[in-house]
């Protein structure tokens, strides 16, 4: 396990970002409104965080709770926001939309990926709610910039999805499985050992970085504990 595992931490503001970097985070997922499972932050928030830390930032592109993109005007608003974020210096993003049948909303995802013009992006946990995650992977396989799937292996979280994660890890590098698996969603420290043993090397935490709850900021000590475990210390 000589390869350093990626540790991504959810950040809501500058205080979170600074604490996460101090604790050893490699990357931040920037969101607002965790009660809605993470929506797009303001450009001002992004700019403040970008000025405060020097690690990678991935900006969420989602306007409402759930995995539907919404009406055409919402899609156009997301496009405008993405362009504004890019103008402010954003280079990495997070997105993912499903249609009413649980399939990938390919038109919307393709539109946003095209507007991002090669920026790297994560397809988030919508994959865990998809009717067929294998079909979803095949449909997204050739989209530019897609380099990561954020997944727990199950909509219910890593406890239920562990076997799926281990099975998918065995397919890494095959068509549709080239993007990195970023494990998150009910992730605990005791999950790390079997996941690392299977070759998984990217981990995403939100509540685990806030031992006193979402009303409190990220704890640099909590992030440092994850960093140490991932580094095998």
From TrEMBL:
List the InterPro entries. Answer: CutC-like (IPR005627), CutC-like_dom_sf (IPR036822)
Q: Name one Pfam family in it.
A: CutC
Kindly provide the name given to this protein in its UniProt entry.
Copper homeostasis protein cutC homolog
Q: Which organism is it from?
A: Streptomyces pseudovenezuelae
Regarding protein family, the annotation reads: Belongs to the CutC family.
Q: Tell me which SUPFAM superfamilies the record gives.
A: CutC-like
